[in-house]
Amino acid sequence: MRIHYRTFDGGVGLKDLLHLFTIQGDTKTMTDDEIYQRQQELDLNPPKTITVIGVGGVGSWVALDLALAGVEKIYMVDHDHIETHNLNRTPFKESQVDQDKVTALTELVSERRIDAEPVPITDRIENLAEHSGRK
To answer: Residue 40: pLDDT above 50?
Structure first.
């Protein structure tokens, strides 16, 4: 199934944007309220910001799922790149092999949740601690 996606921005807030999906010739207009209705029924209150350290076999799914649950800003820290043997346990695509994991995951999160703000950090967490003066 091929999904065509367009965003219409009439100068309104992001929550008010309408999304147009065209699925096999059928057109349906959906609002954020419709897309995330189940989450609203559950009265989820996810944190606004999180940090995921390591976006491999577990962290990549955690970051993606938290974005889909409504976390707005996701710092993703990993120094590694995608290898073919990562594809069987991660959401990464074959076309993303050799990309930095955080860069590829930023693409995936942005495709699925346009109002999320993924922040890729391609480094080891130990290096970030040294730069901040903390250990």
So the answer is: yes
Contact between residue 129 and residue 123 where contact means Cβ atoms under 8 Å apart: no
- The answer on pLDDT for 29 being more than 90 is no
Q: Record the pTM.
A: 0.69
**Average pLDDT score, the chain:** 79
Going edge to edge, which strands form the sheet with 26-31? 3-8, 18-23, 26-31
My answer on whether 122 and 59 are in the same domain is yes
Residues 48 and 104 in one domain: yes
Distance from C-alpha of 33 to C-alpha of 84, rounded to nearest angstrom:
38
Are 69 and 100 within one domain?
yes
Residues 29 and 49 in one domain: no
Would you say how long the chain is, in residues?
135
Please check the confidence at residue 14 and state whether its pLDDT lies above 50. Answer: no
List all residues 6 or more positions away from 90 whose beta carbon is below 8 Å from its beta carbon: 56, 57, 60, 61, 82
Are residues 50 and 116 part of one domain?
yes
